[in-house]
Amino acid sequence: MFGSLLLKEIQESMHNYRFLITLLLCILLIPLGTFVSLRDYEQRLANYNQSMQLYHESSQGNIGTGFSAKGFRPPSSLSFLATGLEEHLPSLVNTNNTGNYWFDYENEMTNPISLLFGRLDLLFCVGFVLSILALIFTFNSVSGEKEKGTLRLLFSNAVPRWQLYTAKVTGNFIVFAVPFIFALLVSMIIVNLSSSLNLFSAAIFPAFVVFVFLSMLFILAMLNLGMLISSLTHSSMTSMISLLLVWIVLVLVVPKASPMLAQAIYPVQASQVVNMEKQAVQSDLNDELDKQRAELLERVASEYGMPNADLLLSFNNQSVSEQTREQAMKQYDSQAQPLEDRYEKMISVALKKIDDDYENKKQVQASLAANLSRVSPVSCFTYLISELAGTSLLELKNFKDNARRFQQYVKETIYDNYTLKRYVSKGGNKWNMSYNVDNGFDPKKVAIPHMSDYRRVTLAEVLSAQWIDILLLALYAVAFFAAGFVAFNRYDVR
Hints:
Number of helices: 16
Helix content: 55-70%
Number of strands: 5
Radius of gyration: 33 Å
Distance between the termini: 23 Å
């Protein structure tokens, strides 16, 4: 019985105009989106290679005390799945001999129209286009058959309702999956023909398989949602209007309203305010340091019989011998070094505390927005695919981790090979710095540092971090099916 019902549903779905529309849109949009995203990746890869080459050429023979090492973030090879935040993630990390590092971003809008309307990637094709096609596919599966009178006829032959409903869901899913899988096969050919990617590599193919699985699970959830609405309505027109309203809420309203609601519930101060707070703290501590250095300088001058620090700093004054001045300066340096190190650590700790507090607040707000948006299966699917593609928040955290490792590597291989000599002026302020090379270190022969060992977020790490979205996507599919089945069992076919 079930086999006959399933075959009937498949035949009816394939002979329907909606199957033809789905087939045409899948064949047109999915390969096109793959091709466009691949070209975008190839352009980013070319820019990355060119930037690396220019950096290498400009740094050759110029590694000195003021050298700033640069680590470039390679574009994600899976960005053809989802562009995500790729254009807004930092493009490189800069380091210097102070032990600090900072990020640069691609602020130039190479194509502002694409930012205005978004990218035609696989995430858009599945999350937006196929989601509404899935609802259109099933909007009259129950209500339409009631209007035609076929439901009453079927039930007059003692057909079990659970078999009929399961056959409808399974048949629609199989028919809908055919054009999707066919379009993905075409996309695989396009990717494989690309010289920049190897689809069957260990880094890409497993993630692509997971993408296909998650897409099928998402499509099943949307088909079950369509069946649920169709089982709750008694006319095709009512079902279509209801599904359109539900799609607008789930796809357009919830993802956009969630961050706004999170900002209202848990507001976070602007970055400009945080930067001003950091500047104020740093300025206050530097003022304290300058005051204590000036007091130390006066104290050292007094110990060597000088009435004030001006005599210590005045190299042309004959009243103080050069030997006495040199001894006084050595004593000052030995006492000033721990003082400066202590304040440098205090400044670093204070600034880090402000940054950590700000990042924690932003993380709380972002988590709140994400949790609110997860009431929509579209949001869960978007988080999964963008993280799978390496173009979302996990990649941002990963780049920061790589940046810290890169800074430490540059510090150990270059900056730590220099020692500092201090010269002071009135008030104890440093006015000149020079470095002596130690341990036979030759800056002309040192290798130019590259972030060549860039570590990617693994597939296992993505699945571990996003397990809640996978679980919710599966729960949505099951919940929509169960609710639709209950509604269908109570459906009045008269």
